[in-house]
Amino acid sequence: MNRRSKVGAYAATAAFAATALASVFLADETHCDAANDDKQRRTEGPITDSDPMRLRMEAFVKGLQNRIVNDMEQLDGKTFTRTTWQRQEGGEGITCVLQDGNLFEKAGVGISIVYGQLPKAAVEQMRHDRGKDISADGPVPFFAAGISLVIHPRNPNAPTVHMNYRYFEIENEDGSPKMWWFGGGSDLTPSYLFEDDCIHFHQVLKDGCDKYDTKYYANFKQWCDKYFYNKHRGESRGIGGIFFDDLDDKPAEEVFSFVKEMGNRFTQSYLPIVKKRMNMKFTPQMKDWQQIRRGRYVEFNLVWDRGTKFGLQTPGARIEAILMSLPLTARWEYMHEVEAGSPEENLEEVLKNPVDWIPLD
């Protein structure tokens, strides 16, 4: 797991809550040279492969957000509320939320593009954690860009899904990257277990991983199982997926291509499942169970997720965006127990004992 401490979370914020926390990177009011250069470049025409990775990642997350939102609007029949924001110091964000939809009870898809200065304390922590040669004499320019989404369907037969992909770089004085890395992942959280859905979701992820490194899927699946775990409940948040951070073990172009591949696979991994389950009949008791499982989702996000905790403790953070991932409704029942042999017990068993849905090499 990532070893960053709370202080180091200035850097980790882009990894876990980039969309929500963009406004907290405020070491000073200095405009980054890179931000000014990129602002000028955007006026000159479309971004190409010869442009800095900053601009290419920005273009990717903006395009991916639009495609996902459009696909979901066509499926649901209702439109997302779009909120945009800009930072004087450099950067912008777009938060798209659909609430009380026909198929989706709540869905949020957000992006952020942030330029700023890492405070000295955060720089020193990163030197310790990453072992990199970063000057600790003063604030260091950085850039972060990411896309994050969480979708909570109405029908308890359809699973909740989470996805996040991000890029972070620390810059030299001339705006070139001194250090960079990518992170991301996608995971599924069902209320009722359909093995074919789990296999489909994991297979799409594995196929994408295998195009770049046959070790990626097994490593990132294990990382996902460990991270999305409710320790106080002794169970996983869902049936997993992939999760990775600090990915810089290959050339930047190759890692960026991998991140684009996985981001572009989101609709292929998730929407077929929703289409299959969205019209299935369900009982009030099944809806209650979904709400109980949503409560467990809330518990993880507020108790264990590092980005959420950091954001809530940070003055000036965009609280609405931080809590975008929470479901519209949830339920907590005192001493709730599932019936032996029931579908609910079947799910609990899998959550307590993670399954390898795809054979690991």
Distance between the termini: 22 Å
Shape: globular
**What is the helical fraction, as a range of percent?**
40-55%
How many strands?
A: 9
Tell me about the biggest sheet?
7 strands, antiparallel
- Strand % is 15-25%
* Biggest sheet: strand arrangement: 1-2-3-4-5-6-9
Order of helices and strands: HHHEEEHEEEHHEEEHHHHHH
Domain module count:
1
Instruction: Supply the CATH architecture.
Output: 3-Layer(aba) Sandwich
Query: Rg from C-alpha positions?
Result: 20 Å
Uncertain residue ranges:
1-31
Describe the structure.
The protein is of the alpha+beta class. The chain has a single domain, classed as Coproporphyrinogen III oxidase, aerobic (oxygen-dependent coproporphyrinogen oxidase, 3-Layer(aba) Sandwich), CATH 3.40.1500.10. Helix content is 42%, strand content 22%. The chain has twelve helices and nine strands. The protein has a seven-stranded antiparallel sheet, sandwiched between helices. Strands 7-8 form a two-stranded antiparallel ribbon. Strand 7 and strand 8 (235-236) form a beta hairpin. The longest helix has 24 residues, at 53-76. The radius of gyration is 20 Å and the shape is globular. The two termini are 22 Å apart. The relative contact order is 0.16.
